[in-house]
Amino acid sequence: xxxxxxxxxxxxxxxxxxxxxxxxxxxxxxxxxxxxxxxxxxxxxxxxxxxxxxxxxxxxxxxxxxxxxxxxxxxxxxxxxxxxxxxxxxxxxxxxxxxxxxxxxxxxxxxxxxxxxxxxxxxxxxxxxxxxxxxxxxxxxxxxxxxxxxxx
DNA sequence: GCCAACGTTGGC
DNA sequence: GCCAACGTTGGC
Length: 152
Description:
Layout: E1 3-8, H1 15-19, E2 25-28, H2 34-43, E3 49-54, E4 61-74, E5 98-113, H3 114-119, E6 137-140, H4 142-149
Parallel strand pairs: 1-3
Antiparallel strand pairs: 1-6, 2-5, 3-4, 4-5
The chain binds a DNA duplex through loops.
């Protein structure tokens, strides 16, 4: 069982949007970075939990938790020329990009802001807080996961 | 294989 | 809107 953090811009897709989806389930598509792709494809397992992080938000921070309900499979939106995330390098025979399916698990009573996360000494080595880290999918250690839950 | 130019992310 | 930090592209 692994823990993760997944970023989304709430203007595009927020935790409330996920909560309001049929079955509270959605594809986590559109990841176009190889490091993040590898985690989606190879490491995320059914039943893993992930923080839903709101990026480019006011404020940015962790809004809640989702569960991985389907492991990595080809991101078919990369094959659709009319889609914003279309990538001609990806084909059905040789998919370049992968996605997982997630299900809404819970929304925190309040958002834990990036500022608060930075102020927690238990999180000082967290990937999210490292300078220049722009990955949209990150691994979270069990210790970090626990420390964040205690901040609610 | 190097690296400059360009594009993107995302905090502020 | 600015810009630092990265990732990608493509000429050589």
